[in-house]
Write a structure and sequence with these properties.
mainly alpha
Length: about 60
């Protein structure tokens, strides 16, 4: 089975604003993940770096 090549994308200002809004609105991480097309892990890691809560971190 061939491995998928990892592609990292930079976070845009619009994506950061969206993430902060979802944090404030307490949107489930799975829903945010589908909308932003990023993994739950990537969202949680970015939220941790920004100092905002997501999901179970509240």
């Amino acid at each position: 089975m061939a491995k998928k090549k990892l592609v990292r994308r930079e976070w845009t200002l619009a994506e950061l604003r969206t993430l902060k809004k979802h944090s404030k609105d307490r949107t489930p991480v799975a829903k945010i993940s589908k909308e932003m097309k990023r993994t739950e892990g990537a969202l949680r890691q970015k939220a941790l770096n920004l100092g905002i809560g997501l999901g179970h971190q509240r």
